[in-house]
Amino acid sequence: MGKKWTLEALDAKVIIFKKKRRKNYRRTKGHRQELTRLRITDIQGIEKPEIPDVGKSEKAALKKPQKVAVAA
């Protein structure tokens, strides 16, 4: 398996806010999760599937489904 680069950073801050109404009770906490990002360039041992070439007329037929009349 080939990896291109690694980035270790902190995720966006999540704010936790607690409040009890009419009692002047407010608490705020923040949390930032550690984050690791990898870019995978290829995975060995798996063959890539072959994608058949579809002509223009076949693409048009696939995009528009035919309507079926329903008896009421």
Q: Separation of termini? A: 58 Å
Q: Estimate percent helicity.
A: 10-25%
Mean pLDDT: 80
- Mind telling me the C-alpha Rg? 27 Å
Sequence of strands across the biggest β-sheet:
1-4
Unreliable runs, pLDDT <50, ≥5 residues?
A: none
Write the element-wise H/E pattern from the N-terminal end onward.
EEEEH
Percentage of residues in DSSP E strands: 35-45%
Structural class by sheet pairing and helices: mainly beta
- Number of separate helices: 1
Give the biggest sheet: 2 strands, antiparallel
- Overall 3D form: flat
Query: How many strand segments?
Result: 4
InterPro entries: bL21-like, bL21-like_sf, Ribosomal_bL21_CS
Protein name: Large ribosomal subunit protein bL21m
GO molecular function, one term: structural constituent of ribosome
Family: Belongs to the bacterial ribosomal protein bL21 family.
